[in-house]
Design goal:
single chain; 2 domains; Nuclear Transport Factor 2, Chain: A; alpha+beta; Lipocalin; 6 helices
């Protein structure tokens, strides 16, 4: 497995200098260059002098397929000075999304208080992954919230669907023992995207397959493709709720038998704990694909 320091350095490069969090980027090579778009009119009117701040706002304006996507950090008029004397601006997210020329998300504002569901006045910064993952139904945006110059991050996957509905999934980057690793990021993101696609009013087989092909071997992807949220072998429950992704716990992978134990709680719900074991297939770049799922040593899913 990767060493913690290496992983954190990679994550810092992916998410920007403001937070050196453990955040994963969901790549999609169909992303258009942002220079081809003018961005939104609100950003064009921004006259803020950003030279006074240690951190600068990021912007992403892109077209992927028939999606037009604008993700901007913007100055909300507040700032703070951290102990080393640097002045940081507070930048919430503003998101605008269109699909086929029709507005899906309009001026959606997301702050760290929105993400954490906490009204306390903390000194926290937002950053987002510039490489979006997009399917026919949904735009997925990776967002990190953390204090400046630290690794103490909260990671989220924001999902904006074509029907205008938005969902937030907590993405863990630590194993059950507290060690930082890329495996929890991949597993949590896979569970979130797969469950989210299955939960669509009209699930799109091509969108589901795109998620499966990103994280699974061809054999396992074909095995999961026909399934729904009901009695799905990945979830081992009569009907899986996407909210349960937020309770996922990832255990230290076993690189001898190439497996990784995953557990979640049916909360909200009866609170029971369900565990599965993912089979892994190693790739050349120290990454893994998921190659199957089985019970953790029992004939039925383990619960307590």
């Amino acid at each position: 497995m990767k060493q913690t320091l290496y992983i954190l350095c990679v994550f810092a490069l992916l998410t920007g200098a403001a937070c050196s969090s453990g955040k994963k980027n969901s790549g999609n090579n169909a992303t258009a260059d942002s220079a081809i778009l003018k961005g939104d009119s609100i950003a064009a009117l921004d006259k803020t002098d950003y030279s006074q701040f240690y951190n600068k706002p990021e912007r992403l304006d892109t077209i992927i397929g028939d999606w037009e996507i604008h993700v901007h950090l913007f100055y909300d008029g507040t700032s703070f000075i951290e102990p080393e004397g640097h002045t940081y601006a507070t930048y919430p997210l503003r998101i605008n999304i269109k699909k086929g020329g029709q507005t899906v998300v309009e001026n959606r504002i997301i702050s760290y208080k929105t993400l954490l569901e906490d009204d306390s006045d903390q000194l926290l910064l937002l950053s987002f992954g510039r490489n979006l993952f997009v399917t026919g139904t949904t735009v997925y945006v990776d967002v990190t919230c953390c204090p400046p110059e630290t690794d103490d991050a909260n990671n989220y996957l924001l999902a904006f669907s074509a029907d205008g509905k938005g969902s937030k999934y907590s993405i863990n980057y630590e194993l059950e023992d507290g060690e930082t690793d890329s495996m929890p990021l991949d597993i949590c993101t896979f569970y979130a995207m797969y469950a989210h696609e299955l939960a669509q009013t009209k699930p799109n087989p091509k969108a589901i397959k795109k998620v499966l092909n990103k994280y699974c071997t061809k054999t396992f992807a074909n095995e999961l493709l026909p399934h729904t949220l009901k009695n799905n072998p990945l979830f081992a429950t009569p009907r899986f709720s996407p909210e349960w992704v937020n309770t996922l716990v990832i255990y230290l992978p076993n690189t001898v038998d190439m497996t990784c134990k995953v557990a979640y709680r049916r909360s909200p719900g009866d609170g029971k704990k369900v565990a599965r074991v993912l089979k892994l297939k190693a790739l050349d770049n120290e990454k893994y694909l998921f190659d199957g799922v089985e019970e953790p040593g029992k004939a039925v899913a383990w619960e307590e």
